[in-house]
Here is the input.
Amino acid sequence: MVRTVISLDDNDKQWLDREAARQGVPMTRLIRRAVRLLRQQGRTAGASTDELLDRTRGLWKRGDGLRYQNRLRDEW
Here is the structure.
């Protein structure tokens, strides 16, 4: 594991200390969890439009999607 020094605002440091105490874990563990969560969110939120289209291609099985959309819009 690599050691890293960071600078925090006083309020953020106090919050981290309180939250770590509340959870019963060291502050460093709390920070590692937060970094891991951010990385996971980045992977799912960072999908490109092409990736999303590839993942969802072929899901619609009710015929012509454009015709279906136009029919719904005609109801408006």
